[in-house]
Every structure is written in structure tokens, then in C-alpha cells.
Write a structure and sequence with these properties.
The structure holds 2 protein chains of 2 kinds. Chain A is mainly alpha-helical. Chain A has 2 helices and no strands. Chain B is an all-alpha fold. Chain B is built from 19 helices and 2 strands. Chain B has a two-stranded antiparallel ribbon. Classes of the chains: A mainly alpha, B mainly alpha.
Chain lengths: 82, 456
């Protein structure tokens, strides 16, 4: 049992020492792509002519006022009586 | 002091109260005030109620408008109930309003008006069926009272109530989208009616809704007649521009809009500045009502038109009539009564008169400002029509199109009319009997044709 405890404490100390070390990640500072060598799989089609589909211009109509009722006139008539 | 007065005035007929003596001498306004002082602390009997009704018959109820609610509650007459019902109506307490309108006696002189307001309460509660029933009852009651009245002014009042009930029926039909039925109802109002000039605009809207833009324009032309120069409505100008726009007569629409901006807008602005200065005055608008036309500035021309319209209102007649009667009573008291009696009653009458002047002033001020308030709204709506016209014209250019008809003027074939409507050509003159029956015969330009290019 003592031996196990001794080994365990030794392991913990070793781990603690390991954590103190800084890990540095380094990325590539420069990488070259040779686009001419890149191969793209597929079919190359060139358009014969350029066309735009004709469509109507979007019209924005203003909401012009139309009278829905004469309620204010009714109120005014009542007020005009007395 | 009071007892001395009582003794002085009631000396000829002892045993009568002061109010009874005042009433006997036809000092009705003083008698009314005295009656309240005498009876307020007593139990009100049927005799009191009948007497109050009699006094109010001579004074009218206008001066009770500001009286305390509790005081009016104490006297269960049809007149006081009518006043209280109107108060509840204006407070939108419709339940109470209906309760009190229901208490106005069938034979009472305010019964037709009570029915008109009852219909309004039902309308506000969206109970259209009961609203219709009340308007019909109102028309019947107003006709009955009109038949009984022997005074021309009273007859006119009942005719006005009758026509308002009829007009409101038409307005209800319009609101429900029943434009043809609404036009039938409007058609029942004779041209001699005080309401008729206002109804033209409403009829024009109904025709507009039915797509008969020519008839709408024709009706609105009526306002250009010299007989109708006091009736200017920004809404009529807007509807004219809109109807032309719907017929794709863009140039005509722009002319109406430009006229409105150039002719009326600066005047409205000037007028507004004049009126705002006197906003808090207690008698400026009252005095304005009696100012002669020649004394009015150019910017006040519109005020004169509005005031002419206000003077034709029943409300003004009633209030002004009260002032006239109070003046008469004051003169008679000053001439016939002793100094003590003069001191006692003249102050009260002067206060009542002042109150009536303030009321007329307030009503005139409110009406003028309400009118002015419609101006910015319709100015902005006209601006929208203007933008829309420009947008349509731009579309025509972009799509290389033009309107099918090059604004060729009217043709009889474009006039829609019923078999009851006659037709004469307009020869540049307005005839009184023709007013309100005009129709333009313009062809709609809304169809477009592709424009031929120079190369083609």
C-alpha cells in the first residue's frame, strides 16, 4: 500500500512539472500555391452570347387615400345642432 | 335684501313666489335662476317639473349646459334628462346615455333629437339594425313635430333633424359599401336643404367608389359655382385630382394640384398665423362673426366663408337667439324695475350673456381650427397624387408608350346616367337648378399604345 502511495505521489509531482512547460504552436509563415498546376475536374463551357431575361420594373405604388366612412361628418352634424 | 326685493316685485300679487312674479313679467331668464334657488332644497313635485319645462320652453336649454349634474338630476323633466343623456353620450357612457334618452317623453320637443342621438349610440356599438330603426323613428318624429310647429325657425330645426337622420342612413350604407343604395338615400335630400352643399362631396365619393369618375368630377364642379363660393373643402380638391388621376388625365390632375398649392396654401398659412395669435381670446372669434366683409383682410376671406357656414348652423341660431332674448330682458328690467331689482338681476343676466358669448366664441374657434386641421392632411395626400402622376408619366417614357387618347375632351358617350336623369350641355354658365347634376364626359386615357420610334 505504501509503495502504491509513493508511486502515486511521484506521478503527481512529475505531472505538475510537465504542466509548467509552455507549448508553442507554430503555423506556416509562407506557403506557395502553383495555380497553374491545380487541376479542376469538370466540364468547361463558354457562353455563346450574353443575355438578360426581360422583366417588368418593380412599381412601388403609393397608398392613395380614399374615404372609408363619414364618421367625423356625423359627429360634426350632431355638434352643429347644439 | 332678498326679502325686500321679494316685497318690491311681488307687491301687486301677494302669495306668489318671486320666480312666479318674474315669470309673469316675462323675465324668463331671471325667473329660471330664481326658480332653482327656491326649489332646490325642497321635494320636487309634478308642479315643479311642469313649471321648469314651461320656463325652459322660453329660455331654451343652452344655458343649462354648464349646470351641475346633481342639480339637473333633481328635476326629472324631459329637458334635463336630455341634457344629461347628451353628457353621457359625449363621455361615451353609452349604457347611461341610452337609459336617459329613453326617458325623454315621446311628445317632447327634443324627442326627435333624442332619437337621432340614440341611433348614434347604437351605431357606436355597431348595432346597425337598431341604428337604422332609430333613424327611421327619428325621421317620423321630426316630421310630426315639424307639422305641429307654427314658427318658421322651429320648422327649420325639425327639418334639419330629419335630414341629418336621413343623411346618416346614407352614410351608414356608404360605410357598408352599398354605394348605390347610399346614393338613393342622398338623392332624397332636396337642393334647398342647408345640408345639401355638404352632401355633394359625399355623393362624389360614392360615385368615385362606383368607378363613375366623370359623375364625381361633375358633382365637384358644383363647388365652382358662384352660389357655392362659401363652400370650400380641401377634400373636394383632393378628390378632383384623384378622379382625374384615375382617368389617367395626368395633366388635369397636375393642374388641380398646382392650383391648390399656389392659390390656397399661402392663404392658409397666413390665416393660421392670424388665428394662432388670438387662440386664447374670449371674444375674438365672436366679434369676427359680426365683422363686415369689407373690414376683413384678404387672408380672412376664408374665415368669412367659414363663418357664413357657421352662422347657418342651428347651434349658432339657438345661442345667438338666447343672447338676443337676454339683452331684451336686461333692457326691460333697466327700464321698468327699481334700482334694487336691477342690481339683483342684471349681474346674473350679464354673467349668463357672457357665458353664451364665450360658448359661441369657443364653437367658432373650434370649427375654424378643425377646418384648418384638414388642410395639412389633404395637402400631403395631394402631394402623394403628384408623386404618383410623375411616376406614371416616367413609366410611360421608360416603356416607350403614350396614353391612348391625347386628352381629347368630353363626349356624351362617356356620360353615365339613369333614365331619370336629364342631359344638357354645359355652356359656360352655372344654373341654380342644374347644380349637383353635372357630369363630365371625359374618356379614360388609361389604355396605352407603344410609341413608334423614329427609325421605324
Amino acid at each position: 500500500m505504501r509503495i502504491i502511495a509513493f508511486l502515486f505521489s511521484f506521478y503527481i509531482i512529475a505531472e505538475a512539472q510537465g504542466q509548467d512547460q509552455k507549448v508553442i504552436y507554430q503555423y506556416k509563415k509562407y506557403e506557395k500555391f502553383d495555380l497553374g498546376n491545380l487541376e479542376v475536374k469538370g466540364q468547361l463551357i463558354a457562353p455563346g452570347d450574353i443575355s438578360v431575361r426581360e422583366r417588368d420594373r418593380k412599381r412601388f405604388e403609393l397608398d392613395l387615400y380614399t374615404r372609408k366612412d363619414f364618421d367625423p361628418f356625423i359627429k360634426k352634424d350632431i355638434e352643429s345642432l347644439r | 335684501m332678498k326679502w325686500l326685493l321679494l316685497l318690491l316685485i311681488s307687491l301687486p300679487v301677494l302669495g306668489q313666489t318671486l320666480s312666479e312674479n318674474l315669470e309673469k313679467k316675462k323675465y324668463y331668464y331671471s325667473a329660471l335662476n330664481e326658480f332653482f334657488l327656491e326649489t332646490y332644497s325642497k321635494d320636487i313635485t309634478q308642479a315643479h317639473v311642469e313649471r321648469l319645462e314651461k320656463l325652459l320652453f322660453f329660455t331654451g336649454i343652452e344655458l343649462l349646459e354648464d349646470y351641475d349634474h346633481t342639480l339637473l338630476e333633481k328635476y326629472p323633466t324631459s329637458s334635463t334628462r336630455f341634457i344629461l343623456a347628451r353628457r353621457y353620450f359625449h363621455k361615451k357612457d353609452y349604457k347611461k346615455a341610452l337609459e336617459y334618452f329613453g326617458k325623454v317623453h315621446v311628445d317632447h320637443r327634443y324627442y326627435p333629437e333624442a332619437l337621432l342621438l340614440t341611433a348614434q349610440v347604437h351605431g357606436s356599438k355597431n348595432d346597425y339594425k337598431l341604428e337604422e330603426v332609430s333613424y327611421t323613428s327619428c325621421q317620423k318624429a321630426a316630421e310630426k313635430e315639424e307639422g305641429k310647429a307654427d314658427n318658421v325657425k322651429i320648422k327649420r330645426y325639425y327639418r334639419m333633424v330629419y335630414e341629418i337622420c336621413l343623411t346618416n342612413k346614407a352614410r351608414r350604407l356608404y360605410k357598408e359599401g352599398k354605394y348605390k343604395e347610399s346614393l338613393d338615400a342622398y338623392g332624397q335630400i332636396p337642393k334647398q336643404s342647408y345640408k345639401w352643399p355638404y352632401i355633394i362631396l359625399e355623393q362624389a365619393w360614392a360615385h368615385y367608389q362606383l368607378g363613375d369618375y366623370n359623375r364625381a368630377l361633375g358633382l365637384l364642379v358644383t363647388y365652382k359655382s358662384p352660389l357655392m363660393d362659401t363652400y370650400f373643402f380641401p377634400e373636394a380638391e383632393y378628390l378632383t385630382a384623384l378622379a382625374y388621376f384615375k382617368l389617367c388625365l395626368y395633366e388635369d390632375s397636375l393642374i388641380v394640384i398646382n392650383q391648390y398649392y399656389q392659390a390656397y396654401r399661402p392663404r392658409f398659412n397666413q390665416l393660421e398665423s392670424v388665428l394662432k395669435k388670438n387662440r386664447s381670446s374670449q371674444n375674438y372669434f365672436y366679434n369676427l362673426m359680426f365683422k363686415k366683409g369689407a373690414d376683413l383682410g384678404k387672408q380672412e376671406e376664408f374665415v368669412r366663408h367659414i363663418i357664413t357656414r357657421l352662422k347657418k348652423q342651428t347651434r349658432f341660431s339657438l345661442d345667438f337667439n338666447s343672447i338676443h332674448k337676454i339683452n331684451q330682458e336686461m333692457k326691460r328690467i333697466m327700464k321698468n324695475e327699481k334700482k334694487a331689482a336691477q342690481d339683483e338681476f342684471i349681474d346674473h343676466l350679464a354673467a349668463v350673456k357672457e357665458n353664451m358669448i364665450s360658448k359661441i366664441n369657443y364653437n367658432a374657434k373650434t370649427d375654424i381650427f378643425n377646418f384648418l386641421e384638414t388642410v395639412p392632411f389633404f395637402s400631403s395626400e395631394l402631394f402623394k397624387v403628384n408623386l404618383e402622376v410623375l411616376s406614371r408619366q416616367k413609366d410611360l417614357v421608360y416603356t416607350n408608350r403614350k396614353l391612348a387618347v391625347d386628352r381629347a375632351r368630353g363626349d356624351y358617350s362617356n356620360v353615365k346616367r339613369s333614365r331619370f336623369e336629364q342631359f344638357w350641355k354645359f355652356e359656360g354658365e352655372f344654373w341654380g337648378d342644374e347644380l349637383g347634376d353635372y357630369s363630365l364626359g371625359l374618356k379614360s386615357s388609361c389604355q396605352t399604345v407603344r410609341m413608334e420610334s423614329a427609325e421605324e
